[in-house]
Amino acid sequence: MKKTILLFLLLIPILQLKAQFRLGSSVVTAQFNLQSTYSKINNSSSLNNADNNVFSNAGQLNLQFEKVYKENKMYGIGLVVNNASFSKHYVNYLAGLSFSHRNIFPLKDKYGFNLQTNISFLGGEYINSFFGPRNKSFQMQVGANINAGFYYFLNKNVVLGLNYNLVNFGYSSRTNNDKNSLLFRDSDFSNTDLSINISNSLSLSNLRLSVQYVFQAKK
Fold first, then answer.
1. Which terminus of the chain faces fewer neighbouring Cβ atoms within 10 Å, N or C?
2. Closest C-alpha among 211, 209, 216 to residue 60
């Protein structure tokens, strides 16, 4: 995987053939990611009454508006909605803004590669019912990623895309805000997490599908 990434970066200078996204054009993009996993755990290594059938579901939708400020280069701003659940005990709802920059490298008239950088700021609710009573916490998340992918023009306006996350950076902070919580009633609870991940193997969790509509500027 690392060799593939390196080869792609070395080819970037020769990939720019013609402008498929003309200066002044606007692009509306719906990008989404869905994943679902199932595993079975051994109760002897988990807490009492733990559910040994574990389902994990996650989904993200990013609605983005991009503006071409230079041929085959664009910046964008978008609305991100993120939902994740682990078994039936943990649920996470997040929403916020994302900012992006994208470079386009056409190969032929209808398709090519793109390299994109995203930064997102999200906030929302984290619900934990593993210990019985539902405990609600406020969660803040800051993320950044670099992804590369392939796009294809179905016609002059509609584009399909498939991107893969190469590098992910994430910071999250969670603070208990449920005064009725039995678990943290008499104390303030907070938790922070910092993570950096470089993709070195293929994983469906790193894939992003997108549908784009291009409002082409006049020549």
1. C
2. 209
